[in-house]
Write a structure and sequence with these properties.
Pnp Oxidase, Chain A, alpha+beta, 4 helices
């Protein structure tokens, strides 16, 4: 019988710590640092672009900032809600699903953005594009039965960069 306590492996904790450090550096530098990451040690590319996504917790009402890999196609910014291929959506995706728009920061520029989830053939084309941006997405897709969401942002008005 479960005691309701969630336990985490050392690798999972190290990953969370690394993501938190990346986010903190990106935010503290105003985007001057953290936009480009080297993911070659884990199967990605040495020059991988990341953004910051700000959402509001759907239950807590608290502001959340997540650093995420992105690509751009036809004026839209794409991200993948992979959570490393586990069988549950990332919290940021669940929070985003409750919002009409969000704030994204790319390097030293931030924007309000509307979002959508592509479907059908467009989704498959964009999935292939994002798998080229970050090859481990292919393994993540194989690792889960859930349909990993793709998000397309349409940046709008510029806003101040995100603060910690």
């Amino acid at each position: 019988m479960s005691n309701g306590k969630v336990t985490m492996t050392a690798i999972e904790q190290a990953t969370l710590d690394s993501v938190a450090r990346h986010r903190d550096i990106y935010v503290a530098s105003g985007g001057c640092e953290g936009h480009i990451r080297d993911f070659s040690a884990i199967g990605g590319h040495a020059f991988t672009t990341t953004l910051l996504l700000e959402t509001i917790g759907r239950r807590s009402g608290e502001r959340r900032i997540a650093p995420l890999i992105y690509g751009t196609v036809h004026g839209e910014v794409l991200i993948v809600a992979s959570k490393g291929g586990v069988d549950v959506h990332p919290g940021w995706y669940c929070n985003l699903a409750a919002m009409d728009e969000a704030t994204i920061q790319i390097g030293t520029q931030a924007f309000h953005a509307t979002w959508r989830e592509p479907e059908g053939d467009e989704r498959e084309r964009l999935w292939a594009f994002m798998a080229a941006v970050y090859p481990p997405y292919t393994d993540y897709r194989r690792a889960t039965e859930r349909r990993i969401p793709l998000i397309c942002f349409r940046p709008g008005a510029a806003v101040e960069v995100l603060k910690g």
